[in-house]
Input
Amino acid sequence: MAEFLSLHDAVARFVENGATVAMEGFTHLIPFAAGHEIIRQQKRELTLIRMTPDLIYDQMIGMGCVKRLIFSWGGNPGVGSLHRLRDAVEHHHPVPLDIREHSHAAMACAYEAGAAGLPLAVLRGYVGSDLPKVNDQIKSITCPFTGEELAAIPSIRPDVAVIHAQKADRHGNVLIEGIIGVQKEAVLAATHSIVTVEEIVESLDTHPNACIIPGWAISAVVVAERGASPSYAHGYYPRDNGFYKTWDAIARNRESFAAWMNDHVMNARPEESTR
Amino acid sequence: MAEFLSLHDAVARFVENGATVAMEGFTHLIPFAAGHEIIRQQKRELTLIRMTPDLIYDQMIGMGCVKRLIFSWGGNPGVGSLHRLRDAVEHHHPVPLDIREHSHAAMACAYEAGAAGLPLAVLRGYVGSDLPKVNDQIKSITCPFTGEELAAIPSIRPDVAVIHAQKADRHGNVLIEGIIGVQKEAVLAATHSIVTVEEIVESLDTHPNACIIPGWAISAVVVAERGASPSYAHGYYPRDNGFYKTWDAIARNRESFAAWMNDHVMNARPEESTR
Amino acid sequence: MSQPLADITPSEMMTVTAARALGNGTTCFVGIGLPSEAANLARLTHAPEAVLIYESGTLQTRPDVLPLSIGDGELCETALTTVSVPEMFRYWLQGGHVDVGFLGTAQIDRYANLNTTLVGDYREPKVRLPGGGGAPEIATNSKEVFVMVKQSRRTFVKDVDFITTVGFGRDGTARDNMHPETARHMGRGPTRVITDLCVMRPDPVDHELVVTALHPGVTRDQVIDATGWDIRFADTLETTAIPTAEEIEVLRSLKVRTERHHAGDTV
Amino acid sequence: MSQPLADITPSEMMTVTAARALGNGTTCFVGIGLPSEAANLARLTHAPEAVLIYESGTLQTRPDVLPLSIGDGELCETALTTVSVPEMFRYWLQGGHVDVGFLGTAQIDRYANLNTTLVGDYREPKVRLPGGGGAPEIATNSKEVFVMVKQSRRTFVKDVDFITTVGFGRDGTARDNMHPETARHMGRGPTRVITDLCVMRPDPVDHELVVTALHPGVTRDQVIDATGWDIRFADTLETTAIPTAEEIEVLRSLKVRTERHHAGDTV
Output
């Protein structure tokens, strides 16, 4: 049953040094507030999983929280590179970063398989690609009915999943609406889960097939207003595309990055850190 | 792109003798009107797939349309046996019926895999059950990461899927709401699909993550008012539980069954046949 | 306050005993029929926070009347949300979110294996039953399983004709020595069998069913006569607690509401 | 009416040519950036019934401005419906519902293999690029693939450093002799590469890219200079049709709307 916790307490309780953490949200509903709190608590040696690392992982990598990254597309969407990610891969700064790289289709299937309690995901994937040559986690199985060889990758089963959603009711049942990504899968695949929400409401008041994660499938629910900014929350606030563009210059250089993080994250209280 | 057809024309065009047909709807939205039209058109040698055969397949089996049944639970829900199904299995009447029997979990995964374009479904299933001894379509694969042996069954990829839904818009986009079962999977897994609907509306006017099957993924859309009765359509009419109970007596005996089918299906026009 | 014993039917005794087995807050995957009756009675009495899941995709449902089918409209209308059937079996059941799988059966044997497939030979059955439905994986993927069934020699057989749904296998060892990954996801199997006469539990070592409690007024001989094998009794045999007046009252009014509701239209 | 040629930029020429390749009613899985621009231009001109799908789960979307990211709110708000990302890749892409996969790239080679992973060696890269994203399976599960990319020697290389996304493989035979079940689900691969200079298509036999059309005013030498291998030209080399005034007008106003929209707040 979900506990209602502060952001500080939820991160302190569930995100341990060395943990495998999946913070999801496909462009939409990216849990920035929680990412900033993990940075503030100076968690180390994390294995981070995310289809699209985005600015949130650029920040966590640049601040030295991360030992390994499992991902499928590591850019600033529509803008260019993630400079902190590149610096870590190309120059091992601030710490060496081990990467395990997949395709979106494979990652999506691996979350699905994790949610389904399976050890592997099966897909018609990676045909002709060099990715299996550099990622030993991409193997294959043979279909016993057709003889077809299909790609197999390990399912994603993180220690902790962290997502942001629009709202929760007083029982901790969470509604996600709009671009729902792989958030439900991430939560169901994980041992523990933290869901930050814009608000707590009396009733979710929605339609019969809404994407709702029941409170009994969540570890902690945390109120974090504007907790996805500069990403967005459908029905609450739009994506701050301007900031995504501005980030390119901030992150390009180690000093400007450090200064920005210092001002906007390290010295901010949880409720101030997101923008 | 979906064509708008009459029930007669849709069945005549897409359901051939000998075809593999999946008519889905998990208790809710069972496509009775379409089933009756298949009976009226005296289709033969069909392989029918359905998790819960229900009255609709009892009727089709009793009327001699069916050569093989792939299913996972063949009863009259909450009432008892499907007597026509039993007569076919126990006494080969009116024609011998070959059965391939699964569990719900396996059938659900096989529809999912069919929709996903895969040849097989993988699940942690059938552990300790005798079903694999009597169904040679239940095999296994070994996970290349953990060494675990998992059940594998062929995905479901029917020639035709037939479902009933609440409504379509003028482009043939279809909304399904409430207990959505495996209907979307059945349509996406099939080569052709017929969707009967309660009504055509100007706009589906619904929420961002509604269960909508786009018109371009459907072969034919057919208006069939009360087309799921005596099953039900959420938002339109309730399940006729009384009829489900009455069916037990009608179907128990070959003569009363034949008389009922004659009166209510064979000599009815499409628009009269459902009740 | 207990209900006067003479006023309680064996069926009611069974349902109330089964309902009491379900803890508050438990997530329960509910089979149709007797389990549905017991699970909803639990929810309407001591376990208001019990989470009921039906295989039709309805999560956390609170029906006011008992559904006739596993997919009645009532289940969806009172659910927290309704998911697709593949999602139900993959994410919620196989994903490990079910505490108790609550099943009925047509036959059960001494190792709590269930048969809902057929009597006789598979290719030439004497009686063809509906089949497995959700049960085979409910029994392996739930953390534990309760079975609820009226007791008779026809139902309680030494060896089931067909193992539709495994309890502990033909020799009681089906859940032993599994691959670690399978073991991690497999539940403990049947932990209680609740009948109209008694409660049985598997022996912790050999997994054979043992009577651990008799319902009030039921004798050992009655149980022996209604069991198709040489049934064992626990050394300290308990007597099931008598239902309270409230439990009986809630159960009866639930059944009256249900009957009225399902009378519906007839032909 | 054609737009005066002098008034059209090479980029616009590329976008309009790519847009024209997309037939009305086509289901198109759209990559972000150039493909998104071309696909939406098609939808706003000759192909109003083109079905645009983005990997964020938005099915049949009709954005009024071009999304900056693959998951902008605009995409969801104008979509027929939005599904989960696993459903998008499993049911809609791998399930075989995509006619055209529309991709950009950082590097492309003579067999239309795409590299968006890195320049240099994998473990010690000179330049680390974003990676594959949806492209590896878009390229194999769509019925055909269009590639759209500005042409230069840095981009058009004889052999890509890394095959992120297969065209026809290192020797042009990657799509031959597949298992029949795989072959049944694999698309034809890249059928057009549209650049700011020309259009290339794979040779029907050896699958090497061949220039089949030059944009108006572009010379063979310009193409040769911008290609990192000994590029072949078709025997009958066509000249791309000049954009109409309407196409240019619609494209420019789309870009103006987009720019205004994305200016948004800044720090």
In short: Chain B has ten helices and 15 strands. The mean pLDDT of chain B is 96.
